[in-house]
Target: CRISPR-associated protein Cas7
Amino acid sequence: MNAYIYLRALKHAEHTVFCVEKGQKTYFDPQFNRYVAYSSGQQVKRSIIDSLTSNLNVQMAPITFNYNVTKDKQLENKEPWSPCDPSYVDQLLGGWMRAEKDEITVKRRSPLSISAMRPIHPLLAGTDDENLTFDRSDKPDRHPVNVRLGDKLMTDEEIDEFLTTNNRTLPRRNWIPGNVRTSGLFVYDIAIDLRTLFSVSTNQHEPELSKDKIEDLKAKGWVESENVFGKCLVLPKEEREKVIPALASALLNWRITSNQARTFSLMETLAVAISDNANKLAGAIRAKLIEDGERPKAKPIIDETAGADVFVTLPCSNYVVTVNESADALEKAEQKLIDLMMAFDYENQL
Model:
């Protein structure tokens, strides 16, 4: 009974942004001497959890945000509180930590280990910089112009005099410089620990749950069992059978939801590799470096003989030489994940 499922997926991104708070995230690749874009594992995880809860039509656990009022009447951020309740599916699969003064810290590591989404090869993805514009110059009568001189709002007559005197104009257009976009082929990897996927430890030496929450879960039908980490509670089978198909879909069909409308990309999934051996994934979806004079190139490769179960979608043939692409590849990959997760004996691990 293998305890892990490993997943690698290849996505295509086109002229988009993975993070918009401070522009596109990048890191420097020292071997190929270039900056490449990435989406952090935390962002990928959040997008998967968003997709999962949407598939199940359930809400995420309520998080309490705490503040202190300082002596100078300012608000000071304190650590947010998680309910630490696996009854919420985002808590069960996403993990938690809560540390309170004068109380025992409880924490649960997520059973999903998720990598950053990064280029399959530094030469197969890139960034470009563009200047955007907020433009309303086509209908000047509908969009007034305000000019402030210090704290004073200038009148129309004062504006006209200023423009005439200084030979200036006031266009109804703002430039927004330095907007980085990325395009290319990206991969992400996920390891699913089946031992803890639906099992929560009841050990009180390094607790995941409070004693009150343990009793509450027992009352809700959670099954008492034991795994290699010790005694635990297991989500009832009927609940697991609801979560597993939704999780399988979310792992393959998530989208980054923090994009602004102008940066939307389908981010279509091109290929998926699934195995109980992580090394098989690296061979199944990879890139090959090709020497081409002084300028090396890279070629994406989907290898169905590398030992993993490989599923190739129709759009993959746009970017990779493929043989067995199919319209139902993602549905087959989902079913493979469902079968593997359903087959594990969560109640009788020992």
